[in-house]
Design a protein that fits this description.
Radius of gyration: 17 Å
Strand content: 15-25%
Largest sheet: 5 strands, mixed
Number of strands: 5
Distance between the termini: 37 Å
Length: 175
């Protein structure tokens, strides 16, 4: 069985639900609790730097996406490749590298002098892919966590709902 061709195209409204769904399936925001995945996360990047937001598609639909923006913390001359995710069927096909290239090209064209990204410790596949795409390790930070005395280890709170996403789905059903 041959793989269908991959197209990397700018993020558009028609991709939004699939991008949100993939992000909810692949991101473990409990491991980096200062970040969250929601419609607002996508919208902030898409609004600030739409040319740095890309999706990869094939005949079956969404393969993956990348979201970047210009400025990182107080550094307005640094780009930030913050979100990238792939469907399992996209792995090993060069899709992630294609997405990274498009995002980085857009950020450099917008004036970035450097582009940063972060990879969760232990995610060697992502770290290897970033190295292959010209990234080098920089600062390493260890996140220390202290649980509340009443919280049970290993217990997981109910996942938060994204009300904006629910409104988007209702609007899509009525149109």
């Amino acid at each position: 069985m041959s793989e269908s061709p991959v197209q990397i195209v700018p993020l558009e409204l028609i991709h939004l639900d699939a991008v949100l769904d993939l992000g909810h399936r692949v991101y473990d925001v409990k491991s980096m609790p200062y970040t969250s995945w929601s419609l607002s996360s996508v919208a902030a990047h898409w609004d600030a730097q739409p040319d740095a937001c890309w999706v990869a598609m094939d005949d079956q639909g969404l393969l993956g996406f990348v979201l970047g923006s210009l400025s990182y913390d107080e550094r307005e001359d640094w780009g930030y490749l913050e979100w990238i995710a792939l469907e399992e069927r996209a792995r090993g096909r060069g899709v992630a590298s294609g997405l990274v290239t498009r995002c980085c090209d857009a950020l450099f064209a917008a004036g970035a002098s450097r582009i940063i990204t972060d990879v969760e410790g232990g995610n060697e596949a992502s770290a290897t892919m970033m190295r292959r795409n010209g990234f080098t390790e920089g600062v390493t930070v260890t996140l220390f966590v202290r649980r509340a005395p009443h919280e049970q280890p290993g217990g997981s709170p109910r996942p938060t709902q994204d009300p904006a996403r629910a409104r988007l789905r209702r609007a899509a059903r009525t149109s």
